[in-house]
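F.,

This is the one I mentioned.
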């Protein structure tokens, strides 16, 4: 009886069969996706309930465009408030002075715990708790004062509610980005004679932007969609505008589609700008 050495299997044959299985799997997934896409198109095009003629009629309606402009302005204003205040709170949370850290932590905890809708309603009804807003020496004479009902308009309440809420989230985003910068960078800047502010503005912040921009962009999209909440305080944003129209015409679905299409357009355009910013601040890392 002759013993023969075990022959290893042909690895090339196994690789070929594995590649064949993967390709067949890709084809199967592609066919399934194609069928689903065809069903979706058929549902959208041939379902008369969508009333695409009504969508086309109101897509560029002046009232809808005014609501769209209000939505964009509210989102931009809220993000500016959030960025300025959030960066300040992030600096407080990173401060070596304990009371500043405690104040920053308390702000983030409180405003992240309260739903944005509750905050909007609270600011809109601030006059109930504080009928008059004044400026002066604490516990001393008053220099100037105004009625809260005159100051807290729906616009003011919307910017305050959305901006202060965003500041809590952006503070954590900025803090995480700053902590991600290597400490040796700050030490090198100090050795070159940079002051604390110069180190922050010229060394730390530009490097942190690479990690700050993506989540900040996501927060802008969140606040853009969150502007739909201001309809509860009679603010004429995009959603409120279409609600006003379908409250008169009873064409709910096509008017909601109008709002959906405009949200898609604005978010898509902003996403393109965000990608350009990410490439700009990440060019050194990519290289």
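My design for it:
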């Amino acid at each position: 009886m002759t013993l023969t050495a075990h022959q290893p299997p042909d690895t090339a044959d196994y690789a070929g069969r594995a590649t064949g299985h993967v390709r067949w799997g890709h084809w199967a997934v592609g066919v399934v996706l194609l069928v689903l896409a065809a069903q979706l198109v058929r549902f959208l095009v041939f379902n008369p309930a969508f009333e695409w003629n009504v969508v086309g009629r109101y897509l560029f309606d002046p009232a809808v465009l005014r609501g769209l402009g209000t939505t964009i302005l509210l989102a931009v204003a809220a993000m500016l408030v959030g960025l300025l205040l959030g960066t300040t709170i992030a600096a407080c949370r990173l401060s070596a002075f304990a009371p500043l850290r405690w104040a920053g932590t308390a702000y983030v905890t409180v405003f992240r715990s309260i739903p944005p809708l509750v905050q909007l309603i609270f600011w809109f009804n601030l006059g109930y708790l504080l009928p008059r807003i004044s400026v002066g020496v604490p516990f001393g004479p008053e220099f100037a004062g105004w009625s809260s009902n005159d100051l807290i308009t729906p616009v003011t309440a919307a910017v305050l509610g959305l901006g202060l809420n965003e500041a809590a989230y952006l503070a954590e985003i900025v803090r995480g980005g700053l902590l991600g910068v290597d400490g040796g960078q700050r030490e090198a800047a100090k050795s070159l004679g940079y002051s604390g502010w110069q180190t922050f503005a010229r060394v730390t912040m530009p490097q942190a932007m690479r990690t700050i921009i993506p989540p900040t962009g996501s927060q802008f999209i969140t606040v853009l969609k969150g502007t739909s909440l201001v309809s509860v305080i009679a603010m004429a944003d995009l959603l409120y505008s279409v609600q006003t129209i379908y409250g008169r015409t009873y064409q709910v679905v096509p008017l909601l589609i109008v709002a959906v299409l405009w949200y898609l357009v604005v978010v898509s355009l902003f996403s393109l700008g965000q990608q350009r910013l990410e490439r700009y601040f990440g060019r050194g890392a990519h290289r």
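The two ends are 65 Å apart (CA to CA).

Talk soon.
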